[in-house]
Write a structure and sequence with these properties.
The structure is a single chain. The chain is α/β, with parallel strands linked by helices. It folds into two domains: 2-236, Rossmann fold (3-Layer(aba) Sandwich), CATH 3.40.50; 248-340, 2-Layer Sandwich (Alpha-Beta Plaits). The strands form three sheets. The chain has a six-stranded mixed beta sheet, sandwiched between helices. A four-stranded antiparallel beta sheet has the order 2-1-4-5, with helices on one face. Strands 12-13-11-14 form a four-stranded antiparallel beta sheet. Helix 3 (99-105) packs parallel to helix 5, helix 4 (114-127) packs across helix 5 (143-154) and helix 5 (143-154) packs parallel to helix 6. The protein has twelve helices and 14 strands. The chain binds adenosine-5'-diphosphate and magnesium ion.
């Protein structure tokens, strides 16, 4: 559905050149929910704006549904663009228009009759569950309701693609979840391919089939969400995992030398990461017996990544050094990531 090939975008300013997007290649399949995660300044917004050519790349191809839209003449580009909806962090609604007219504005070039437009607007507002706010003004709505209007507007021209730039970043966690559920149903019911740009790990882990991690303009890691976050390769990916759930806490406790994380001579602390729940208990007791080491679990956490559990256990082993080494080697051999953290 979307293929980026070697897309590069540099901004020239008085302060120097900013390489916002550097040589990014990505393939996003028809009907998937694809996440692009990265910290602020990583180049996510610039990249997503290159997908609908709000930003023209300096070089590279942007292939939508089989054709490179960078090469299209303006008129054809407008047609392709109408098939891509976009929503933003701050909703970008028109304050002087009602909910009805905000959505209707998107249909001004649709060629529909007045009656058809009316029917369309009403059905879109029903889809986003806002039929009762049809005559309200944006200032009378909550953040979540504003984003629902923006989603209805983005869907007005029956897009095949919905681009979401930090669409939940201004919302509280509960509202975020309800917007994500709505996006999920839009994806399932209407078959729309969704690209989600976010700096929030919770968003990616909740809804994205696949994810790309961006850092300083480049995609540094990509794959199925559960794979990327259960076996992160890059430090930036690891730091996102630490922002989710409470597992990052353990590193803080170690840093501040909290009594909970102090070790006695001969003790070593490990972080175990596993994706299948059924093995972990047996493995800890198995290595303890087999290799004659003591294992105490001091911290545990299970995240659910798009239906796949990702478990983290912090275990302190004590015993003979060689025995601990053998135990760790065994745990690694059964596919559990095991990292010595203290
Ligand atoms: N129009 C612009 N002019 C100059 N620099 C820009 C412009 N847009 C973005 N940048 C710079 O490009 C880099 C990437 O920005 P952006 O794509 O907004 O990142 P993100 O969305 O990941 O926070 C940043 O250093 C930003 O300051
Ligand atoms: Mg951004």
């Amino acid at each position: 559905m979307i293929e980026l090939k070697n897309v590069t975008k540099t901004f020239n300013s008085a302060a120097g050149n900013v390489h916002a997007v550097q040589n990014v290649s990505l393939k996003i399949e028809d009907g998937e929910i694809f996440g692009i995660i990265g910290f602020s300044g990583a180049g996510k917004s610039t990249l997503v704006r290159c997908i609908n050519l709000l930003e023209r790349p300096d070089s590279g191809e942007v292939i939508i549904d089989g054709s490179d839209i960078v090469k299209l003449p303006e008129k054809e580009l407008r047609t392709v663009r109408r098939k891509m909806g976009m929503i933003f962090q701050h909703f970008n609604l028109m304050p002087s228009r009602t909910v009805y007219n905000n959505v209707g504005f998107a249909l001004r070039k649709s060629g529909l009759s007045k009656e058809e437009k009316d029917k369309k607007i009403r059905s879109l507002l029903e889809l986003v569950d806002l039929s009762d706010k049809i005559d309200s003004y944006p200032s009378q709505l909550s953040g979540g309701q504003k984003q629902r209007v923006a989603i209805a507007r983005a869907l007005a021209n029956d897009p095949k693609i919905l681009l979401c730039d930090e669409a939940t970043s201004a919302l509280d966690p509960q509202t975020t979840r309800s917007i994500l559920r709505l996006l999920e149903s839009v994806n399932k019911k209407l078959g729309i391919t969704i690209v989600i740009i976010t700096h929030q790990m919770e968003v990616v882990k909740d809804i994205c089939d696949r994810v790309a991690v961006m850092e300083t303009g480049s995609v540094v890691e990509e794959g199925r969400t559960a794979d990327v976050f259960s076996h992160p390769k890059m430090p930036v990916t690891k730091s996102f995992i630490e922002t989710a759930g409470n597992i990052g806490k353990i590193y803080e406790l170690i840093k501040e030398d909290n009594p909970l994380t102090r070790l006695n001579p001969g003790e070593r602390m490990y972080m175990l990461t596993y994706t299948s729940v059924n093995t972990k208990d047996a493995i800890i007791s198995y290595v303890s017996r087999t290799y004659n080491v003591n294992a105490s679990i001091i911290f545990g956490n299970v995240e659910v990544l798009k239906d796949i559990p990702l478990g983290k256990l912090v275990v302190v082993f004590s015993g003979e050094k060689d025995n601990i080494d053998a135990a760790v080697q065994y745990i690694r051999s059964v596919g559990i990531d095991t990292e010595e953290i203290k």
